Amino acid sequence: MGGVNHSKLVDSDIVTGLSFMEEGDFSKLYKGYITATKKPVTIKVPKVPDYIRKEKKAVKIQIEEAKKLLNTNIRKPIGDRVVRVLNIGYDDFRKEIWIIKDYVDGTDLESIMKNPSLCPSLASPEERMRVAVGIAQGMSYLHNLRSPVVHGDLKPTDVILTAKEKIPKISDFGLWDFKNFFMEETGQPLVYFNPYQAPEVVLGEDRPTLCSDIWSLGCVLLQWMLERPPWDIQDLCTRYSYRLNKQDMALSDAMEKKEPPSILSALTDESINGLADVFLYQPMHRPKASDIESVLISASSKPTWTRMAYHKYYNNKSEPLQSR
Fold it and tell me: Can you list the domains of the chain with their CATH numbers?
């Protein structure tokens, strides 16, 4: 696979030309090139304390378990809506865990939502719908593999839009257990605050399933299309008497009472009303990813998602309505 040997631990000479890209809450990202083929790749390095990452035997066990979750189909050049994981390994030289993925020249969805000027061509409802359909296709692809793959932690940062065509690709799937091993070892909560996560995971701390993926997918899609976050966290904190730094507890209380996400109040377009079913509290009653894909494809041909939609969603102004 492009010069990466899956049977051995990663060694520092597999990738050359390593350059820093960005740093997140749980990992650092680098760009590099496979030595044998010069193929560009992204290297994700989880932030793991020294006393854990130097325990090579324990870490290697977790790496091998993570590899089992990655269906071999994903490593083949099919499925243009996902970012392939090429290898997971331990770099003996740097004493680091490496997740090596296809390199995608682009921007994540969250960055674009925070700063629309990064991709002004995506401002129209037609383009928003096109991207939404692509995201649903990516999840449908993962869920309909011969051995279905659960993403487990879908957020806008896990959707990468390519620089030229603005094609959405889903990244960082199938690594829930792998990430939680390190979170548990460092004393961090099993479920960190993620407002896109399904209630059965937030409340029961259950391992994510295909059904919980659907809730997360709905949150991401509606936030992208309607330009509002899935939950009004400030309102939840006020109503449940929590400070903003306790937003996870406010969200848990709302889910305990089976409140619908606040974004549903903005779901007034009949063509996409079917997406409301993704927020059913009974997981098995939620639609499949392929069903969501069908709803969006159908909606994309309706008048409300033509140029008429521009006036509906942008209120006859040149700038989009601000998110609440």
Answer: 15-102 (3.30.200.20), 106-314 (1.10.510.10)
